[in-house]
Amino acid sequence: MKTEKISELTINRLSVYLRCLNELADAGEQTVSSKTLAGRFNLNSAQIRKDLAYFGEFGVRGVGYYVEDLRVQLIKILGLVTEHRAVVVGAGNMGYALANYSGFKPRSFLIIGIFDSDPAKIGRVVRDGLRVMSVEYLKDFIREEGIDIAILTVPASAAEEVFALVTSAGVRAVLNFAPIQLHAPEGAKVRTVDLSISLESLSYFLANPSVELATE
Amino acid sequence: MKTEKISELTINRLSVYLRCLNELADAGEQTVSSKTLAGRFNLNSAQIRKDLAYFGEFGVRGVGYYVEDLRVQLIKILGLVTEHRAVVVGAGNMGYALANYSGFKPRSFLIIGIFDSDPAKIGRVVRDGLRVMSVEYLKDFIREEGIDIAILTVPASAAEEVFALVTSAGVRAVLNFAPIQLHAPEGAKVRTVDLSISLESLSYFLANPSVELATE
DNA sequence: AATTGTGAATTCCTTCACAGCC
DNA sequence: GGCTGTGAAGGAATTCACAATT
Fold this sequence. Notes:
The structure is a homodimer.
Chain A: H1 8-26, E1 31-32, H2 34-40, H3 45-53, E2 59-60, E3 64-66, H4 67-77, E4 84-89, H5 93-99, E5 109-116, E6 125-127, E7 130-134, H6 138-145, E8 149-152, H7 156-168, E9 173-176, E10 189-192, H8 195-207
Parallel strand pairs in A: 4-5, 4-8, 5-7, 8-9, 9-10
Antiparallel strand pairs in A: 1-3, 2-3, 6-7
The structure holds a DNA duplex.
């Protein structure tokens, strides 16, 4: 494993590969070539080989990659062997939805707390064993429960403050849904999901149909 | 306005600039320089000037950009003058949340229908004037109501089929939350929001703290 | 024969640096 | 003097193309 700087784009693609490998494993496939894999997405096969080569030599020349092998490797690389414990901050519609989102790997990501500052929301049951707590207890909760990921679904106006709170409590990874650029301190990582930007880029596309946007 | 190919990255940044200009306008600022603007994000001022220069010469040398002017220009460029009419397909938690999401510009994006295939969900009131309809009526609804954006919150297994349905009905812009790569036909545009990828990239970061990921 | 791993070439994106203008 | 607009330079990501390997 090289100690090179690895692009976030590469990491995102590893997730995509892993998902695909899971499907291939379910389908009983033993091996897969970078070419076959590339065919599933709009990718060049060299891209896939390069991405994987950052982390080791996982393939076999003339054969391809052993599905199960590579799957296990990617799980390791992405840090999905260890369980991550997450909280949702902001118990609005989006917070509820994420607390109940079934798409997260339950082995890897557990949402074990949801917080809000609105007294009217505190105590509400989001699902079995999960009810809204006051942000007052957020800091202690993070420490006591070993939370390592915070998902922010608070309004933009509150995001910076909540972000400072969770990072000061030791959280180093934040998934931010507030439409604001958070300034991550050294050692912390923010991923922002900005739905307005997504919709507005679609709007641009609709308004400028002649212009070809790069496909994703 | 040049007929050059414009990167999606540029378009995304235009959204960011617009948001910032709205704030500046609210704060009563008359002008802003690319340098000031750049300071708000982690951007180079030349980047901002280049992004804007694709669409015209909006600045004044020695002065900067007139906030209100540029704001209006960006609204035009992003196609936000015309109202977009959207449907949500998939009335799960995420669908509900998006149908009620307050972060979308209400002048530009209207969610006027929500659909599901589950009979148990059909008829449920999502909010005032919006109740879940059967996907059976989706195609007709899109045509009759002039829907131009579809937001998919269906399971991955159903996404391709629903996608084919909405595009065949004339929708050319899709915001996809299903964890699957949709194959967009010529003339249609998909933006996928993949929450698992986001979380897994955070997991990678947590598992490899030494490795520096490019900041976003 | 097939497919990987990887230098070289290419394309795309960002930043520099400065002429031109207010 | 300050700031834009932009050609040129630099850097990053992708793709090509092929030697190495099974």
